[in-house]
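Example for tutorial group B:
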C-alpha cells in the first residue's frame, strides 16, 4: 500500500469517525446534570427526609442517553469489551480478518435490525406523546426512545470505519491504530 493510499484511507476513516466522536463528546456532558440530580436526591432524601419524585426519572433517562450516545465513540476508540488475552496474541492480519468477519456477519445485520426496529418504536412514541406510566410524575419518554435509532445510525457509520480499518490491517499486516496515541 502506498503512502498516498494510506493517507486517503486515514482521511476517510477520520471523517467516518467524526459523527460518533462529536456526539460522544457532547453526550459526555450529560454526566453533569445526572450527578446534580443524584446529589440533589441524596441530600433531599437523607438530609431533609424529603425524597423527590423526579430524580430517579432524570438520572434514568440521562444515563440511558449517555450510554447509548457514547457507544459509537467507544467503538471508534476500540474500547468495547472483548477477549483481548486471546485476540492480542494473534498477528495483526488475523485480528483484522476476525474483526472484519464479525463486523460483516454479526455487527452490521444486528445494527441494521436494531436501527429499523427502534426507528418505528421511537416514531410510535412521538405519535402517542408517550409517557412513563410506572413513574409518579409520568415524564415524557419519546426523546429517550429517539436516542435509540440515532445510536443505531451512529454505530452503523462507525462500523463502516471499523471495517475499513480491519481491511487496512489485513492488507498491511499492521494495526491501524498503531501510529495513533491515545486521544480523548
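The residue assignment follows.
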Amino acid at each position: 500500500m502506498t503512502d498516498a493510499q494510506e493517507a486517503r484511507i486515514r482521511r476517510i476513516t477520520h471523517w467516518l469517525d467524526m459523527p460518533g466522536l462529536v456526539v460522544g463528546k457532547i453526550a459526555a456532558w450529560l454526566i453533569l446534570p445526572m450527578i446534580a440530580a443524584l446529589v440533589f436526591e441524596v441530600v433531599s432524601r437523607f438530609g431533609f427526609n424529603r425524597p423527590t419524585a423526579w430524580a430517579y426519572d432524570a438520572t434514568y433517562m440521562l444515563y440511558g442517553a449517555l450510554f447509548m450516545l457514547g457507544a459509537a465513540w467507544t467503538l471508534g476508540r476500540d474500547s468495547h469489551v472483548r477477549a483481548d488475552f486471546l485476540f492480542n496474541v494473534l498477528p495483526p492480519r488475523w485480528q483484522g480478518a476476525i474483526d472484519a468477519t464479525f463486523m460483516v456477519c454479526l455487527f452490521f445485520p444486528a445494527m441494521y435490525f436494531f436501527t429499523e426496529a427502534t426507528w418505528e418504536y421511537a416514531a410510535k412514541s412521538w405519535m402517542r406523546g408517550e409517557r412513563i406510566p410506572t413513574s409518579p410524575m409520568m415524564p415524557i419518554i419519546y426523546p429517550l426512545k429517539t436516542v435509540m435509532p440515532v445510536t443505531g445510525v451512529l454505530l452503523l457509520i462507525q462500523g463502516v470505519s471499523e471495517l475499513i480499518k480491519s481491511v487496512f490491517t489485513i492488507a498491511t499486516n499492521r494495526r491501524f491504530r498503531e501510529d495513533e496515541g491515545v486521544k480523548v
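DSSP finds seven helices and no strands in the chain. Compare this with the pattern of hydrophobic and polar residues in the output above.
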